[in-house]
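We give this protein:

***
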Amino acid sequence: MGSNGRTTLTGSQGTPQRGRTGIVSGYVFRVIREQLHHTQESLAEAFGVSTDTVAGWESGRRPLTSLAVGQTLTHRHRLMRMSVTPALLLALDKALEADVLFASVLAEEEPTCPSPLGAWVMQRDLVEVLAWPLNGVTPEPMRGLDVPARARRGPAPTVPELTADDRRRFFRRMRRTAEEARGRNFLLRRQALYLAGYDNAPDTPAWLSQEQRAERPGDWLTQWLTARSVAAVAARHGDRDRMEHFIATTLDDDDAGESANLNYWAYWIGESPHPQLSDDFIATAGTPTWHGHKLLQHLVAGLAPDRGLFDLNTHTLWALLAARPGLLRTSAAGRALRDRLPLLLDSAESSTRTRRELEGIRYAIRLAEA
């Protein structure tokens, strides 16, 4: 709690809670209620339900995911009439989806149905919400929101919280899912490997490297995506050398690799509105259907030398501007990039390759402004 009596959504505090199946959607619902300046009692009256029901939704004891579809839509329409921001409604939708995925992983019994993690290629707006209880990083639509201060009966968490047992169970099952999917379901394996990478256990980088070595020989795209996933996770854990190796050996001077990287990023940040059921679209040759404005904005916002993916972000931005130089003339992100470049070039964190690519980006900006 800050000195001004307000709590931002970027910290982590609170007491451990028992395992629940609606922790993410319940937390987002609480944030929405407080943004509307409602108490549990007043919102219950507006929704025509009991106060205990609202409390159960927020705590996860009565998960929102257990409601009938029609009832969920009715409540959503009520929130829309209350003028909840679209970003929060989107976050609630993704939180419901994340809770379904958590429930499938954390079920006490072994699952009898195929894991939903292998059903479609996930995008950032879902993965950020899914990772929220794992890494404590607030999803983009909710960053900067202030929760109005209210008297509470006890400490309230500032992120959705998994119990220690549930965290261990989640990561243990992600590892087992990735191992069992080897050679059978590559999409499921890749996405399980990625989520397993949020585990801060000391052996996580070594386990991921072992899984990469154990990957059965496959086509080019399979090997490319495995190398990218392992390099991204290693970078998150502070090993930037593996990402530097990936860029040097898999992207530089490889048109197919550069195209795949741009296609992957564009889909990841939502340039493509349609979900993909396999990774094959990443290797699609020819003119992509995405425009690049949203990707440019995302990459510029993520240019922070202290972040593990800084080298990949810079290289991807350099490749994007080489392929779409017109973006600099039609996007406000180009102006923000121009203003930030001097600081980025002065950073001691930048590798020789990254510094060279930043110089190339500065030259592209000069050409666009000429």
